[in-house]
Task: inverse folding
C-alpha cells in the first residue's frame, strides 16, 4: 500500500446505490436503505478514529421527496431510528452532530430526535458528523441570498463589501470548512445538487460500489488516491 502523506480534513459523501444493491439481490428497495445504515456506522467510526475533522453525509435531498410515499415514509422512520440508536456511536467516538438543509420541513418527531442528539453532542470535541437532510445546493444558495439581501436592505451589510467570505457566512455551512474530498458511490458521475458552492476545489472520487458495500477497505482506497492528488487551487507548485 502507498504510504499516506496526508488526510483530508473534510470528507463529503453522496451515499448512492442502496436501491440497486437491494434489487440486485431480489429485495425491496428499502432493504438497501437498512443495509446502508451499517455502512454509515462503519464509515463514521473509521473517520472518527482517523481524526478526520468533518464527515458530511448526503442522506436526503430536496429532490428525494419525488419518490413514492412508501419509500419517503420508510426513510423518515429509518432516520428517526438511526438518530436514537446511534447516540451511543456518537458518544463513544466523541462526535459532534450537525445538520444542513431545510430541517423545518422534516416530520416533527424526526426534528425532535435530531435536536436531542445535537444538544447531547454539542460539547464533544472530536469529529463533526454533518447530516445533509432535505438538503439542496441550489436551495442553500437561494436561502443564503435571501438572508444577505435582507441584511443589505436593513443596512447591516453594504453592497460594495460583499465578497466570497460574506456570502459564505449566510450559507448553512457558514461555520464549516469546505470539503477536501467528495466521494460518490453507486457509479453515477454527477453531484446531484450536493454542496454546489462548497465543492469548488474538492477532489472528486467516484466508485461503482453501491453504498451498502462501501466499507473500511473502500474508504482506504479513496484516501490513498486522495493522498496522491496534487491540489493547486489555480496556482502552481514549485
Ligand atoms: C441513496 O440510494 C439513498 C438515498 C437517496 C436516500 P438510492 O435510493 O438513490 O439508490 P439507487 O440509486 O436507486 O440505487
Ligand atoms: C443523491 O442520490 C442523493 C442522496 C444520496 C441523498 P440520488 O439517487 O437522489 O441522485 P440521482 O437522482 O441519481 O441524481
Ligand atoms: Mg440513487
Result:
Amino acid at each position: 500500500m502507498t504510504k499516506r502523506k496526508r488526510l483530508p480534513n473534510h470528507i463529503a459523501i453522496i451515499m448512492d446505490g442502496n436501491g440497486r444493491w437491494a434489487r440486485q439481490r431480489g429485495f425491496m428497495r428499502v432493504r438497501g436503505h437498512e443495509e446502508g445504515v451499517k455502512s454509515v456506522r462503519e464509515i463514521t467510526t473509521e473517520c472518527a478514529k482517523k481524526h478526520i475533522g468533518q464527515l458530511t453525509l448526503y442522506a436526503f435531498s430536496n429532490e428525494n421527496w419525488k419518490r413514492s410515499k412508501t419509500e419517503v415514509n420508510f426513510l423518515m422512520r429509518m432516520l428517526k431510528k438511526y438518530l436514537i440508536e446511534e447516540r451511543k456511536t456518537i458518544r463513544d467516538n466523541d462526535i459532534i452532530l450537525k445538520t444542513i438543509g431545510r430541517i423545518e420541513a422534516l416530520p416533527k418527531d424526526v426534528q425532535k430526535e435530531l435536536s436531542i442528539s445535537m444538544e447531547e453532542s454539542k460539547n464533544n470535541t472530536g469529529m463533526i458528523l454533518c447530516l445533509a437532510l432535505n438538503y439542496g445546493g441550489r436551495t442553500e444558495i437561494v436561502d443564503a441570498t435571501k438572508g444577505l439581501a435582507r441584511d443589505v436592505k436593513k443596512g447591516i451589510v453594504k453592497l460594495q463589501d460583499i465578497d466570497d467570505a460574506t456570502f459564505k457566512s449566510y450559507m448553512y455551512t457558514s461555520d464549516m470548512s469546505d470539503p477536501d474530498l467528495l466521494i460518490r458511490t453507486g457509479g453515477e458521475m454527477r453531484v446531484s445538487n450536493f454542496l454546489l458552492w462548497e465543492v469548488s476545489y474538492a477532489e472528486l472520487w467516484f466508485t461503482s460500489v453501491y453504498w451498502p458495500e462501501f466499507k473500511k477497505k473502500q474508504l482506504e482506497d479513496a484516501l490513498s488516491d486522495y493522498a496522491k492528488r496534487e491540489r493547486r487551487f489555480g496556482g502552481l507548485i514549485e
Q: What stands out?
A: The radius of gyration is 18 Å. The first helix runs from residue 18 to 24. The mean pLDDT is 97.
